[in-house]
Design goal:
The complex is a heterodimer of chains A (about 350) and B (about 1100).
Chain A: E1 6-11, E2 16-23, E3 28-35, H1 41-45, E4 53-57, E5 61-62, E6 67-68, E7 72-74, E8 77-78, E9 90-92, E10 95-96, E11 105-107, H2 109-115, E12 119-122, H3 126-136, E13 139-144, E14 170-172, E15 180-186, H4 191-199, E16 202-208, E17 222-225, H5 236-247, E18 252-255, H6 257-265, E19 269-286, E20 291-304, E21 312-318, E22 324-329, E23 334-337, H7 356-359
Parallel strand pairs in A: 3-4, 4-9, 5-10, 9-12, 15-16, 15-17, 17-18, 18-23
Antiparallel strand pairs in A: 1-2, 1-13, 2-12, 3-13, 6-11, 7-8, 14-16, 19-20, 19-21, 21-22, 22-23
Helix pairs in contact in A: 5-6
Chain B: E1 5-9, H1 21-35, E2 39-43, E3 59-61, H2 67-77, E4 81-83, H3 88-100, H4 103-106, E5 110-111, H5 116-123, H6 125-134, E6 142-145, H7 148-158, E7 162-166, E8 176-178, H8 181-194, E9 198-202, E10 208-216, E11 222-230, E12 243-245, H9 252-269, E13 273-281, E14 288-294, H10 299-308, H11 312-320, E15 347-353, E16 374-380, H12 383-393, H13 411-419, H14 425-434, H15 439-446, H16 450-468, H17 473-481, H18 486-493, H19 497-506, E17 512-515, E18 529-533, H20 556-559, H21 569-576, H22 582-588, E19 594-598, H23 609-624, E20 628-633, E21 648-651, H24 656-666, E22 670-671, H25 677-688, H26 698-705, H27 707-716, E23 724-727, H28 730-740, E24 744-748, E25 758-760, H29 763-773, E26 782-786, E27 792-801, E28 804-816, E29 826-828, H30 835-851, E30 856-865, E31 868-875, H31 882-889, H32 893-901, E32 917-923, E33 944-950, H33 953-963, E34 973-978, H34 981-996, E35 1000-1004, H35 1005-1013, E36 1019-1021, H36 1032-1037, E37 1043-1047, H37 1052-1060, H38 1065-1075, E38 1079-1081, H39 1084-1096, H40 1107-1111
Parallel strand pairs in B: 1-2, 1-4, 2-3, 4-5, 18-21, 19-20, 19-22, 20-21, 34-35, 34-37, 35-36, 37-38
Antiparallel strand pairs in B: 6-9, 7-8, 7-9, 10-11, 10-13, 11-12, 12-15, 13-14, 15-16, 17-18, 23-26, 24-25, 24-26, 27-28, 27-30, 28-29, 29-32, 30-31, 32-33
Helix pairs in contact in B: 1-10, 1-11, 7-8, 13-14, 14-16, 15-16, 18-19, 23-32, 25-26, 26-27, 28-29, 33-39, 34-39
Classes of the chains: A alpha/beta (about 350), B alpha/beta (about 1100).
């Protein structure tokens, strides 16, 4: 629209995309990634796995149903967001919708970003941007208020990302009598995972990423390692803790980053995907049952299935590109999955994995 | 068990509610089966479809899709499997009936895909509700009641407000929303007076309507391919609703909760293949109801396939054969899995296309019944752009959502209109926004989500700005991003379209081409399914690598020639004396060996699947000749918009502006002669801008279409034509009419609602007509011509090269002239006209074709009046009957025309003396069109067609009639009401025939008296208000008769209705027969033909022969 403030997205490859500014007016830096989900922007933006990234949505309209009012389900547990704040560095969209319509809408997308001090740019050909990222791989990008070219030599990468983990031990109780107690290694956990575990009637003890749950005074029936941002190889403390847990007979489930950390803990390798999997439509096949599921995903790294030790087998495989989507110990109750069984945003096809603690 | 031979049921003729989408799904199923090397037997009498073309199914039966005939085919062909879900409700109902009769079991035919038990349970309201309730899913609560008291009881349980619906009611009475006991009593009393039962259910008015397309394989793997949100709320049939994909106003929770319910539902019913689930969604808090489950491919699934690129029907067919989703590949990327859910990076808007204007007395409101005859789908990257494009695709004269003619309404009038949904609703909303009616008010009155209204408001606000400010780069760019067309902007600034275009190109504002890849860019597509948008900075597809994309490139072709209004063509043609030949163009201007074919646009009355058949055959022929093909069309119900059929598919608006855009990019010449009126009308405009057109040139088209020039040509060639005149004043009109002599056929050059073409029998009638229609004759002159009564009409279809006829077919109409050729029954070969006349027809046509130097398809219409030949019309394009004549003569007329278009020299083909007897019968959809008078007129009203083959025309006609839904008489009982002495006399012989075959005859007073005088006894029945019992109504309601023949005195009877707005007894009887589903004849000739046919053939006698058996 004429008369609006310009905002620019600079990419490492020299591309400069011009659009109109919305949200906060600061400048920002991050790894530019794209998500193909058509709904769930409040969930995505508050997903800690996006920390350090500038997120573009391939769906061209954003903010259609506004942003809901924060509802707490419990202390430290939100009902309708994935964490207490927006984690993305910035947002790139085709068209930002100024007049949302929804019974649960409390703020516009624009106002929410302003309030959370996150800059956004609208009016961008996000498909062209996506195809560029697909062809060249994800790259660094900067959202600026000026179109002047920037020198990438002086640009630092985003800082440490482990701040996404809560630094306290928090317990959550399900409605009714807890069936089991689960320790949750928080590497930036999405609240959806906690909610899903609570729905299974589990008591959840959320511990920081560098806290060994074996040290908890309370006996736990199993450990879940959460999702989180960045390169799994940076999470050495957590990998060491997982190695400790594996020495016991405690059931262990890794989700997303937790899956990659389990792989590293058992001596397998991880690698960076050219442009990751971010979307709500990723098809995964359970190799053991030959059943397929649509999954929600947000990851830039993957487990190299060729490096799996003998006592582990591939559990899920991505039907689109054949990458590994889950692993399972051949005898022990140790398993992990690359996708998000809790959805949030996305489908619930694989929510059954949360029930597996009951069977382990 | 391995399946080797499969019977596939089609949906028959196109009708309201079952249109081209089933040609698409059937064609995809055939493709999927062929890949598995399965022998396919197709039953579908619809001759205009692509699925009934040569080279697809192994055998085709052009027979009725009814249990009787399908059983006979099963006996004969012994298939081991049958597919019921690709032919709409027609195929499904037929399959259910066969199942209940135990036919499948008896002949060991396996129903493939969804088990029949699932079909039964989804079709039976009670079982459906019960099963869903068992698994904790919600359906609309309610009950059928037969007394007011019971209804009140139901309402008490549900709580007010409640919705009352009736299965059947005259004129739509009996439905409504009751807020309290008093209102409910009132509504129920009315409802139960008209119908034995009424349904009282919870009121979901104002809830959102959302649909999901769900797929399941035999291993229980499930996906939802697409969700769609209706712009209109619950209460408006989804076929009548504007639909967007994906949903726009659902949050993640709602989206995935409904998705889960959809998957739980498909799992509960164990559907294998595809199903469509419709939801009502509470806009105020999360709550939903399942409204309907269609356990088959549907109109929505076709739309979803086009909207996402996911080939639902193809996949469903594979799943029916026992494949699983993870085994199948995504056909768009060619690499990734078919087990996935498409991610869209664009917005799709579907608009229905109505044609209510063409009908007499039809109700104009829209509601829970479908009346639209077609649809368009638009793709863009914002809602305003998508919806504005869609309005232009309708080909209804709209340039966008703002229709200035509505802006004259006052706020008060608009508010009133908003309450009552009509086909014009979208335009009314925009006018209301223009008049500053608040979004909230509109949302409240219409039940449409405020999101959509806000989006429309942006367009209106920009329209306002454009009206106030001079055009600047920024403003023009924004206008284009908002979906304004050049011509719409030109209107605002009172400039020419070309001026805006030139300005735009100078400023570098051009649309970009984007690809649909099903995965929002995550994986590259191997196909070229394209759309254009201004909300983009880069194109995915750049055909001419030598021309860089983007700014400051001004393609020469579209710049230089300003648009000139009016009749420029005469001059240019007279100067040069001859037109350019297509061949020259092909070699000169087509270095890149590409050809673009313009499709037919939305289906409407008069433009239907036959033109899609033509378009598909054109691209297929071109591809066979090694030419790169570009298909341009915007109709989601078509095969031509399947990305498999052409090298490049532009799913785009068929406007001059877009054709120029595509030409600038692709530099490919156009074929304009195979898509009906839209491309035909674009031809001169393209030519004016020096864009090459293959085949017959626009100058020649103009000569044939322009009344005066064509008339002069006929005079020059000494060919007779009915006397005609073009008049500009009322006195001129009356004088000319007197000179020509009544009856006359009048045709205003500006078409008004229901007043297009008319037959006028007397001066008084003409005066009334002129008085009521208030035509602006000065601005839009009236053309009138002598109507030759009781003349035999003949269609001459041909393909010519350089003015020489290469192939032709002559079809004779059963009905006399005065019935639109699209509604008429066509016999091929001609039956009643003698060899001498046949020769005269082809000789005369050849003369015209030579004179016009036709280079492609052509259709000439003749009347034979008192043994003399009159030419009434000539179209230099493929006609509606091209698939019919091609399939009967087994020479593909379109293939030949395409070869000619690309400059191949072809040799003449002589008509075969062994051509089998076939009859093409029109399908009407009057039952869906409440109030419409079901008479055949000069204006077309049919929606589809079928063919019947036979040992003679009677058998062929009878099979055709049965294929359009008429039943073979079982009670041997007929009702006659013959208006006027002419029809009484003309029908006497047929009545004697009925007596001879021992039919019981009922007749109204006049008819009974006449027949008595002629020695025929009938049972006299009362007209509606005569008070004699039984009345015609009793006969119809009690279904005491097999069919009714209710002929108006003259066809002008119905026109009187337009004038006086009063409805005759005849009208009421005809309408009641339609509403009650009693077979009805309103035309003497076709009724006589039918009686002759049933007296000659018993049902058991009819031939069960495949197409190839008839041909060889």
């Amino acid at each position: 629209m004429p008369g609006m403030t310009k905002k620019y997205l600079h990419l490492e490859d020299g591309t400069v995309l011009e659009g109109e500014a919305f949200g906060a007016n600061n400048e920002t830096l991050g790894e530019v990634v794209f998500s193909t989900g058509m709904t769930g922007y409040p969930e995505s933006l508050t997903d800690p796995s996006f920390a350090g990234q500038i997120l573009t949505f391939t769906y061209p309209l954003l903010g259609n149903y506004g942003v809901p009012k924060v509802v707490y389900q419990d202390k430290h547990l939100l009902k309708n967001f994935e964490s207490e704040r927006i984690w993305v560095q910035g947002v790139v969209v085709g068209t930002q919708i100024e007049y949302p319509s929804h019974h649960a809408s409390f703020a516009t997308f624009d106002n929410w970003l302003k309030q959370q001090k996150i800059p956004g740019v609208t009016g961008v050909d996000t498909r062209a941007l996506t195809l560029n990222l697909r062809e060249k791989g994800v790259m660094k990008g900067k959202l600026t208020n000026s179109g002047q070219k920037i020198s990438w030599k002086t640009v630092d990468t985003p800082g440490t990302i482990k701040k996404v983990s809560h630094n306290q031990i928090i317990s959550y109780l399900p409605k009714g009598k807890p069936a089991r107690t689960i320790a949750l290694l928080d590497c930036g956990v999405k609240h959806g995972i906690i909610r899903a575990l609570l729905r299974q009637q589990y008591k959840v003890i959320r511990v920081p990423y560098d806290f060994d749950p074996l040290k908890l005074s309370e006996r736990v029936d199993g450990v879940v390692c959460s999702n989180g941002p960045g390169d799994p190889k940076d999470w050495t403390e957590t990998v060491a803790i997982i190695q400790n847990i594996l020495k016991t007979d405690l059931p262990f489930v890794g989700i997303c980053l937790g899956h990659q950390l389990l792989a590293l803990a058992i001596g397998a390798d991880t690698y960076k995907l050219p442009y990751g999997h971010r979307g709500l439509n990723q098809p995964c096949l359970d190799i053991s049952t030959n059943k397929a599921y649509i999954t929600s995903q947000n990851h830039g790294y993957a487990v190299n299935k060729k490096t799996l030790p003998q006592d582990f087998s591939e559990w899920f495989v991505n039907l689109n590109d054949g990458t590994n989507e889950g692993i399972k110990h051949k005898k022990k109750p140790i398993m992990s999955m690359q996708f998000h069984p809790e959805g949030c945003p996305g489908p619930f096809d694989t929510e059954w994995v949360f029930g597996m603690f009951g069977e382990l | 068990m391995k399946t080797n031979k499969v019977l596939l049921l089609g949906s028959g003729a196109l009708k309201i509610g079952e249109a081209g989408e089933f040609d698409y799904s059937g064609t995809q199923a055939i493709k999927a089966l062929k890949e598995e090397k399965i022998e396919i037997i197709l039953v579908n009498p619809n001759v205009a479809t692509i699925q009934t073309s040569e080279g697809l199914a192994d055998k085709i039966y052009f027979l009725p899709v009814t249990p009787f005939f399908v059983e006979k085919i099963i006996k004969k062909e012994k298939p081991d499997g049958i597919l019921l879900s690709f032919g709409g409700q027609t195929a499904l109902n037929c399959g259910l009936e066969l199942f209940h009769r135990g036919i499948f079991k008896k002949h060991q035919v396996q129903v493939l895909g969804t088990p029949i038990s699932a079909v039964i349970d989804t079709e039976d309201r009670k079982r459906f509700t019960q099963r869903l309730m068992n698994i904790g899913l919600k359906t609309a609560r309610g009950k059928a009641v037969s007394t007011v008291k019971k209804g009140l009881g139901v309402a008490k349980n549900l709580g007010f407000p409640v919705m009352v619906r009736t299965g059947f009611a005259l004129g739509g009475t009996g439905s409504g929303i009751a807020q309290n006991v008093k209102q409910l009593e009132q509504i129920l009393t009315n409802a139960l007076a008209a119908s034995p039962q009424a349904i009282v259910e919870e009121c979901l008015t104002g809830w959102k309507e959302v649909e999901y397309e769900v797929v399941r394989d035999k291993n229980d793997n499930c996906i939802t391919v697409c969700n769609m949100e209706n712009f209109d709320p619950v209460g408006i049939h989804t076929g009548e609703s504007i639909v967007v994909a994906p949903s726009q106003t659902l949050n993640n929770e709602e989206y995935f909760a409904l998705r889960q319910v959809a998957i739980d539902t498909i799992r509960e019913f164990k559907i294998v293949g595809e199903c469509n689930i419709q939801f009502a969604l509470n806009p105020k808090k999360f709550d939903y109801r399942i409204i309907e489950v269609n356990a088959r491919l549907s109109r929505s699934s076709a739309l979803a396939s086009k909207a996402t690129g996911y080939p639902l029907a193809y996949v469903a067919a594979k799943l029916a054969l026992g494949k699983t989703l993870p085994e199948l590949k995504n056909l768009v990327t060619g690499k990734t899995s078919a087990f996935f859910e498409p991610a869209l990076d664009y917005i799709v808007v579907k608009l229905p296309r109505w044609d209510l204007d063409k009908l007499v007395a039809v109700e104009e409101s829209i509601g829970s019944e479908m009346k639209s005859v077609g649809e368009v789908m638009s793709i863009a990257r914002t809602f305003p752009e998508a919806i504005q494009k869609a309005t232009r695709m309708l080909n209804d004269g709209y340039k966008g959502v703002i229709d200035v003619s509505h802006n004259h309404n006052s706020q008060k009038e608009l508010l009133e209109k908003l309450r009552q949904p009509t086909p014009l609703r979208l335009f009314t909303i925009c006018s209301a926004l223009y008049k500053k009616v608040p979004v909230k008010t509109i949302a409240k009155l219409t039940g449409i989500d405020a999101w959509f209204i806000e989006q429309l408001k942006q367009i209106v606000q920009l329209f306002d700005q454009l009206n106030r400010k001079p055009i600047t780069y920024e403003l023009l760019k924004t206008a284009k991003e908002m979906g304004f067309s050049d011509s719409q902007i030109a209107d605002i600034y009172k400039l020419k379209e070309a001026t805006i275009r030139n300005k735009r190109l100078k400023w570098g504002i051009t649309p970009k081409v984007k690809r649909i890849d099903t995965m929002a860019g995550e994986f590259p597509a191997a196909t070229n399914y394209l759309y254009m948008t201004y909300n983009a900075s880069e194109s995915d597809h750049l055909p001419n690598s030598t021309i860089p994309s983007g700014f400051h490139i001004i393609p020469a072709n579209s710049l230089v020639i300003p648009a000139k209004a009016g009749i420029y063509l005469n001059n240019s043609l007279n100067k040069s004396g001859k037109a350019d030949s297509g061949q020259a163009r092909m070699t000169k201007n087509n270095k890149n060996n590409k050809v673009a074919v313009i499709g037919s646009g939305p289906y409407a009355i008069g433009t239907s699947v036959e033109f899609d058949w033509c378009a598909v055959n054109t691209v297929t022929t071109l591809r066979q000749r090694g030419i790169t093909t570009i298909m341009i069309n915007c109709n989601p119900e078509t095969v031509s918009t399947d990305y498999d059929y052409s090298d490049y598919l532009y799913f785009e608006e068929l406007t001059l502006e877009r054709m120029l855009d595509i030409y600038d990019l692709e530099q490919a010449p156009f074929i304009v002669s195979v898509g009906g009126q839209i491309p035909n009308n674009l031809a001169p405009k393209l030519k004016q801008r020096r864009i090459p057109i293959l085949g017959t040139q626009p100058e020649q088209i103009h000569l044939a279409e322009h009344r005066k020039s064509f008339s002069e040509i006929l005079d020059k060639l000494s060919i007779k034509q009915p006397a005609w005149a073009k008049v500009g004043t009322v006195s001129q009109a009356l004088r000319a009419a007197a000179m020509i002599g009544y009856p006359i056929l009048v045709r205003p050059s500006f078409v008004l609602s229901g007043k297009a073409m008319n037959l006028i029998y007397s001066e008084q009638e003409f005066k009334d007509y002129l008085n009521v229609c208030r035509l602006d004759l000065k601005e839009y002159p009236l053309v009138m011509s002598k109507f030759l009564a009781a003349a035999v009409e003949v269609d001459f279809d041909a393909v010519a090269q350089n003015g020489q006829v290469m192939i032709f077919a002559i079809s004779e109409h059963v009905e006399h002239g005065g019935v639109h050729s699209g509604d008429a029954t066509l016999m091929l070969p001609a039956v009643k006209i003698n060899a001498h006349l046949t020769q005269a027809v082809s000789d005369t046509a050849a003369k015209i074709i030579k004179e016009l130097k036709v280079n492609g398809p052509v259709n000439v219409q003749f009347l034979i009046y008192k043994e003399e030949l009159f030419v009434i019309e000539c179209n230099l394009r493929a006609s509606r009957s091209f698939p019919f004549v091609s399939k009967i003569t087994r020479h593909n007329f379109i293939s030949l025309a395409t070869e000619i278009a690309i400059g191949k020299q072809v040799t003449p083909i002589k008509p075969s003396p062994k051509t089998p007897q076939a009859v093409k019968v029109a399908q009407f959809s009057f039952r869906k069109l409440r109030g419409a008078d079901p008479v055949l007129r000069v204006e077309m009203s049919s929606t589809g067609e079928v063919v019947g083959f036979g040992r003679d025309a009677y058998e062929a006609f009878l099979l055709g009639e049965l294929s359009t839904g008429k039943k073979y008489p079982t009670q041997k009982s007929v009702f006659l009401s013959l208006g006027g002495m002419r029809s009484k006399l003309a029908f006497l012989e047929s009545v004697r025939e009925l007596v001879f075959i021992k039919y019981k005859l009922y007749a109204t007073s006049g008819t009974a008296l006449f027949l008595k005088e002629n020695g025929i006894e009938t049972i006299r029945v009362g007209k509606i208000y005569e008070g004699i019992r039984p009345t015609a109504i009793d006969l119809l309601i009690k279904k005491l008769i097999d069919f009714a023949i209710v002929v108006p005195e003259t066809t002008s009877d119905t026109q009187k209705n337009i004038v006086t707005k009063s409805y005759s007894d005849g009208y009421q009887m005809r309408r009641l027969a339609i509403d009650l589903g009693v077979a009805l004849f309103t035309n003497i000739e076709s009724a006589r033909f039918f009686i002759r046919a049933i007296s000659k053939y018993k049902l058991e006698d009819l031939s069960i022969k495949s197409w190839s058996e008839w041909i060889n």
